[in-house]
Amino acid sequence: MMNLILFLLFLLSIIYCCDEPVFFKGCEMLVNNHDSMLYGIGLSVIAAYIFYIFQVVIPQFLRFKQTQVIGSVKLEDICALIEREFDVLRGKPKNSKVLMDGISDYLDNHDIFSDSSRIEIHEKRVYSVFEALVYNDNKIMALVDEILSVHYLEPKYEKYLFKLKTSQFHKNINWWKDNKPGEYELCEKEKGTGYIVVNIKSVNSDIIFSLEEYLSIYDSLKKYSNKLYGRFV
Fold first, then answer.
1. In this predicted structure, what is the pLDDT of residue 188?
2. In this structure, are strands 116-122 and 186-189 parallel, antiparallel, or unpaired?
3. Residues with Cβ within 8 Å of residue 199, at least 6 apart in sequence
4. Over pLDDT 90: what percentage of the chain?
5. What whole-number distance in Å separates Cα of residue 42 and Cα of residue 18?
6. C-alpha angle 170/159/61, rounded to 5°?
7. Residue 21: exposed, middle, or buried by beta-carbon count in 10 A (0-12, 13-18, 19+)?
8. What is the pTM of this model?
9. What Cα–Cα distance (Å) separates residue 128 from each residue in 59, 72, 110?
10. How far is residue 9's CA from residue 2's CA, in Å, rounded to a whole number?
């Protein structure tokens, strides 16, 4: 928006500082006085805009072209990690183009907080489904923060990364992580101590509900990633 305003001001200054208006009927009033203060201001605006183009716009454009290559790789990594999350929720790598296939059936028969993911293995230990989700989610958010802080991508595409950060799926993962629902947590009761009970059906329902939005964000990122990544490979 600011670039558009500066360009319009530059264009108006050119029109005022040249004698073009005299060739158009009814525009004689726009013919400038070369000795006026406005004429001097107009010339200053033209000179400043040219300086701005060479010192700011062109260097920013060249720098962005360079960083965009890095951004495209990191965006591809984000999409791969999201696909990994869907694999974890499915219990196996996808065998179709539909990422949601098999997730509901898998969740109906598993406890994400205690059952093995069978996919994520680190330091000779197989992560639980939930641990695997947290692991991939942390990596995704680290990449998102890096892209946004360095401005690897155009602002119109950064909005999808903001949607990823504010997605309900990410919020669910964070909430469950903070409240550690998969661990034995002693809680005080009137007659002694007990264990916090997790309603796994409610958890699964929250996951399925939030995946619709998450999948939509993924589709937008994947579409842009393919478009951007194709320019450099």
1. 43
2. unpaired
3. none
4. 27
5. 10
6. 135
7. middle
8. 0.69
9. 48, 31, 11
10. 11
